[in-house]
Amino acid sequence: MSDVAGQAVAFHIGPKGRSVLPVAIRRAAGFVEGTEVVAVVLGEGRVLLETVDAVRQRVWAGAPDPAAADDSTTDVRRMREDDVAVSDAAAVRRSASPESGGSDDRGAALLARLGL
């Protein structure tokens, strides 16, 4: 950072709406020739310039750390596995029950009641 960090430096908008960032600002911000920047309008008369790398770092810094906590996808998968286990256990109980008969017997009984 140079001596302009945290200070205001005025410059003008020139012909065709163009402006040139003063060298002190470019140096303080780390802008060199070819640096890709993003301009964000913050409101009337306010613009923020950031390098693409700075935006990327800011976005990733705000993202939750996957190692620190479970994410919602993991929670949903765990609940789904629990549901499948309950459903499978119920199916095993039904098939092992002597009064339930096999599915073929139940199907035949249903067809007989329908007259088919």
UniProtKB/TrEMBL annotation:
PROSITE patterns, A to Z: SPOVT_ABRB (PS51740)
One Pfam family in the UniProt entry: MazE_antitoxin
Cross-referenced SUPFAM superfamilies: AbrB/MazE/MraZ-like (SSF89447)
Domain SpoVT-AbrB: 8-54
GO terms for MF: DNA binding
Composition-biased stretches (Low complexity): 87-97
Matching InterPro entries: SpoVT-AbrB_dom, SpoVT-AbrB_sf
Ranges for region Disordered: 87-106
Protein name (record): Unannotated protein
